[in-house]
Amino acid sequence: NAGVTQTPKFRVLKTGQSMTLLCAQDMNHEYMYWYRQDPGMGLRLIHYSVGEGTTAKGEVPDGYNVSRLKKQNFLLGLESAAPSQTSVYFCASSYSNFYGYTFGSGTRLTVV
Amino acid sequence: EDQVTQSPEALRLQEGESSSLNCSYTVSGLRGLFWYRQDPGKGPEFLFTLYSAGEEKEKERLKATLTKKESFLHITAPKPEDSATYLCAVQAEIQGAQKLVFGQGTRLTINP
What we know:
A: 112 residues, B: 112 residues, 6-stranded mixed β-sheet, 0% helix, 61% strand
Protein backbone atom coordinates (compact mmCIF):
# COMPACT_ATOMS: atom_id res chain seq x y z
CA ASN A 1 0.00 0.00 0.00
CA ALA A 2 2.48 2.61 -1.23
CA GLY A 3 -0.15 5.31 -2.02
CA VAL A 4 1.55 8.12 -3.96
CA THR A 5 5.24 7.78 -4.76
CA GLN A 6 7.39 10.65 -6.04
CA THR A 7 10.84 10.37 -7.57
CA PRO A 8 13.38 11.78 -7.10
CA LYS A 9 13.23 13.08 -3.53
CA PHE A 10 15.97 15.68 -4.03
CA ARG A 11 17.54 17.28 -7.07
CA VAL A 12 19.86 20.18 -7.85
CA LEU A 13 19.71 21.64 -11.35
CA LYS A 14 21.67 24.32 -13.12
CA THR A 15 19.75 27.15 -14.78
CA GLY A 16 18.60 26.04 -18.22
CA GLN A 17 18.73 22.30 -17.55
CA SER A 18 15.67 20.13 -17.97
CA MET A 19 14.24 17.37 -15.82
CA THR A 20 11.14 15.26 -15.25
CA LEU A 21 9.50 14.53 -11.91
CA LEU A 22 7.61 11.26 -11.72
CA CYS A 23 4.48 10.60 -9.68
CA ALA A 24 2.97 7.14 -9.39
CA GLN A 25 -0.20 6.11 -7.52
CA ASP A 26 -1.53 2.63 -6.87
CA MET A 27 -5.06 3.52 -5.69
CA ASN A 28 -6.71 3.61 -9.15
CA HIS A 29 -7.52 7.30 -8.67
CA GLU A 30 -8.80 9.24 -11.66
CA TYR A 31 -7.61 12.67 -10.53
CA MET A 32 -3.97 13.64 -10.14
CA TYR A 33 -2.38 16.99 -9.29
CA TRP A 34 0.99 18.75 -9.12
CA TYR A 35 1.49 21.46 -6.47
CA ARG A 36 4.45 23.53 -5.46
CA GLN A 37 4.99 24.71 -1.89
CA ASP A 38 6.99 27.83 -1.11
CA PRO A 39 7.51 29.60 2.23
CA GLY A 40 4.77 32.18 2.81
CA MET A 41 2.91 31.13 -0.36
CA GLY A 42 1.26 27.90 0.65
CA LEU A 43 0.47 25.13 -1.81
CA ARG A 44 -0.24 26.31 -5.35
CA LEU A 45 -1.65 24.14 -8.14
CA ILE A 46 0.57 23.82 -11.21
CA HIS A 47 -1.28 21.33 -13.44
CA TYR A 48 -3.83 18.62 -12.93
CA SER A 49 -5.43 15.67 -14.71
CA VAL A 50 -8.96 14.29 -14.49
CA GLY A 51 -8.12 11.02 -16.22
CA GLU A 52 -5.70 9.14 -18.44
CA GLY A 53 -4.71 11.21 -21.45
CA THR A 54 -6.06 14.49 -20.04
CA THR A 55 -4.22 17.44 -18.52
CA ALA A 56 -5.15 21.02 -17.62
CA LYS A 57 -3.49 24.16 -16.25
CA GLY A 58 -3.73 25.22 -12.64
CA GLU A 59 -2.85 28.52 -10.98
CA VAL A 60 0.89 28.65 -11.82
CA PRO A 61 1.50 26.57 -15.00
CA ASP A 62 4.16 28.71 -16.73
CA GLY A 63 7.48 26.95 -17.25
CA TYR A 64 6.03 23.47 -16.64
CA ASN A 65 4.55 20.74 -18.81
CA VAL A 66 2.79 17.53 -17.81
CA SER A 67 1.72 14.22 -19.29
CA ARG A 68 -0.62 11.44 -18.15
CA LEU A 69 -0.08 8.59 -20.61
CA LYS A 70 -1.02 5.94 -18.03
CA LYS A 71 -3.68 6.28 -15.34
CA GLN A 72 -1.26 5.57 -12.53
CA ASN A 73 1.48 8.01 -13.60
CA PHE A 74 1.61 11.79 -13.81
CA LEU A 75 4.82 13.42 -15.03
CA LEU A 76 5.90 17.02 -14.44
CA GLY A 77 8.54 18.43 -16.79
CA LEU A 78 10.74 21.49 -16.56
CA GLU A 79 12.13 22.25 -20.02
CA SER A 80 14.52 25.05 -19.01
CA ALA A 81 14.86 25.38 -15.24
CA ALA A 82 15.00 28.82 -13.62
CA PRO A 83 15.94 29.79 -10.04
CA SER A 84 12.30 30.83 -9.49
CA GLN A 85 11.38 27.15 -9.81
CA THR A 86 13.31 26.29 -6.66
CA SER A 87 10.60 24.78 -4.50
CA VAL A 88 9.18 21.64 -2.96
CA TYR A 89 6.92 19.83 -5.41
CA PHE A 90 4.05 17.64 -4.27
CA CYS A 91 1.98 15.24 -6.29
CA ALA A 92 -1.48 14.24 -5.10
CA SER A 93 -4.27 12.00 -6.27
CA SER A 94 -7.94 11.62 -5.44
CA TYR A 95 -10.98 9.51 -6.28
CA SER A 96 -12.86 12.66 -7.25
CA ASN A 97 -12.84 16.43 -6.73
CA PHE A 98 -14.87 16.15 -3.54
CA TYR A 99 -12.74 13.62 -1.70
CA GLY A 100 -9.58 14.25 0.29
CA TYR A 101 -6.37 14.15 -1.66
CA THR A 102 -3.54 11.68 -0.96
CA PHE A 103 -0.19 13.43 -1.22
CA GLY A 104 3.27 12.08 -1.97
CA SER A 105 6.25 12.88 0.21
CA GLY A 106 7.55 15.61 -2.09
CA THR A 107 10.55 16.46 -4.29
CA ARG A 108 12.87 19.20 -3.10
CA LEU A 109 14.25 20.95 -6.19
CA THR A 110 16.98 23.58 -6.13
CA VAL A 111 17.89 25.50 -9.29
CA VAL A 112 21.23 27.30 -9.12
CA GLU B 1 -11.11 36.19 -5.68
CA ASP B 2 -11.28 32.97 -3.66
CA GLN B 3 -9.09 33.20 -0.57
CA VAL B 4 -8.22 31.15 2.48
CA THR B 5 -6.61 32.79 5.53
CA GLN B 6 -5.35 30.84 8.51
CA SER B 7 -4.53 32.24 11.93
CA PRO B 8 -2.38 32.32 13.87
CA GLU B 9 0.67 31.64 11.70
CA ALA B 10 2.32 29.86 14.62
CA LEU B 11 1.08 28.66 18.00
CA ARG B 12 3.05 27.24 20.87
CA LEU B 13 1.19 25.39 23.64
CA GLN B 14 2.06 23.35 26.69
CA GLU B 15 1.06 19.71 26.72
CA GLY B 16 -2.57 19.49 27.82
CA GLU B 17 -3.35 23.14 26.98
CA SER B 18 -6.38 23.19 24.66
CA SER B 19 -6.76 25.77 21.89
CA SER B 20 -8.24 26.43 18.44
CA LEU B 21 -6.89 27.19 14.99
CA ASN B 22 -8.87 29.40 12.63
CA CYS B 23 -9.47 29.17 8.88
CA SER B 24 -11.51 31.96 7.30
CA TYR B 25 -12.48 31.80 3.65
CA THR B 26 -14.11 33.77 0.88
CA VAL B 27 -15.36 31.57 -1.91
CA SER B 28 -18.40 31.68 -4.13
CA GLY B 29 -20.39 28.56 -3.43
CA LEU B 30 -18.46 26.44 -0.95
CA ARG B 31 -18.40 22.79 -2.02
CA GLY B 32 -16.15 21.52 0.76
CA LEU B 33 -13.56 22.56 3.34
CA PHE B 34 -10.62 20.29 4.07
CA TRP B 35 -8.14 20.07 6.92
CA TYR B 36 -4.70 18.49 6.49
CA ARG B 37 -1.76 17.86 8.79
CA GLN B 38 1.79 18.26 7.48
CA ASP B 39 4.89 17.05 9.31
CA PRO B 40 8.33 18.50 8.41
CA GLY B 41 9.72 16.98 5.20
CA LYS B 42 6.49 15.14 4.40
CA GLY B 43 3.41 15.64 2.30
CA PRO B 44 0.09 16.81 3.76
CA GLU B 45 -2.04 14.11 5.37
CA PHE B 46 -5.82 14.31 5.03
CA LEU B 47 -7.77 14.82 8.29
CA PHE B 48 -11.35 16.01 7.64
CA THR B 49 -13.81 17.23 5.06
CA LEU B 50 -16.71 19.52 6.05
CA TYR B 51 -19.48 20.28 3.59
CA SER B 52 -22.06 22.48 5.30
CA ALA B 53 -22.36 25.08 8.06
CA GLY B 54 -22.93 23.47 11.44
CA GLU B 55 -21.14 20.26 10.53
CA GLU B 56 -18.54 18.86 12.96
CA LYS B 57 -15.99 16.05 12.60
CA GLU B 58 -13.78 14.51 15.29
CA LYS B 59 -10.62 12.44 15.30
CA GLU B 60 -8.84 11.67 18.57
CA ARG B 61 -7.95 15.07 20.11
CA LEU B 62 -9.03 17.07 17.06
CA LYS B 63 -12.47 18.46 16.25
CA ALA B 64 -13.24 20.51 13.16
CA THR B 65 -16.28 22.80 12.91
CA LEU B 66 -17.66 24.88 10.07
CA THR B 67 -19.66 28.12 9.81
CA LYS B 68 -20.59 30.10 6.73
CA LYS B 69 -17.38 32.14 6.86
CA GLU B 70 -14.84 30.11 8.81
CA SER B 71 -13.74 26.80 10.20
CA PHE B 72 -12.09 26.00 13.50
CA LEU B 73 -9.80 23.13 14.35
CA HIS B 74 -10.10 22.57 18.08
CA ILE B 75 -7.35 20.61 19.78
CA THR B 76 -8.13 19.22 23.22
CA ALA B 77 -5.41 18.29 25.71
CA PRO B 78 -2.73 18.14 23.00
CA LYS B 79 0.36 15.95 23.18
CA PRO B 80 3.83 16.64 21.72
CA GLU B 81 3.06 14.30 18.81
CA ASP B 82 0.33 16.72 17.70
CA SER B 83 3.06 19.19 16.73
CA ALA B 84 2.78 19.83 12.98
CA THR B 85 1.60 22.39 10.46
CA TYR B 86 -2.17 22.29 9.95
CA LEU B 87 -3.44 23.29 6.52
CA CYS B 88 -6.94 24.35 5.57
CA ALA B 89 -8.22 24.20 1.98
CA VAL B 90 -11.49 24.98 0.24
CA GLN B 91 -13.00 23.72 -2.98
CA ALA B 92 -13.14 26.61 -5.44
CA GLU B 93 -13.83 26.97 -9.13
CA ILE B 94 -10.68 27.81 -11.10
CA GLN B 95 -10.97 28.10 -14.87
CA GLY B 96 -14.28 26.28 -14.89
CA ALA B 97 -13.21 23.33 -12.72
CA GLN B 98 -13.27 22.59 -9.00
CA LYS B 99 -9.88 22.80 -7.28
CA LEU B 100 -8.49 22.99 -3.78
CA VAL B 101 -7.20 26.40 -2.66
CA PHE B 102 -4.92 26.13 0.37
CA GLY B 103 -4.23 28.52 3.21
CA GLN B 104 -0.66 29.11 4.36
CA GLY B 105 -1.04 26.93 7.44
CA THR B 106 -0.66 27.19 11.20
CA ARG B 107 2.54 25.79 12.67
CA LEU B 108 1.59 24.16 15.98
CA THR B 109 4.21 23.27 18.60
CA ILE B 110 3.27 21.34 21.74
CA ASN B 111 5.89 21.50 24.48
CA PRO B 112 6.11 18.59 26.95
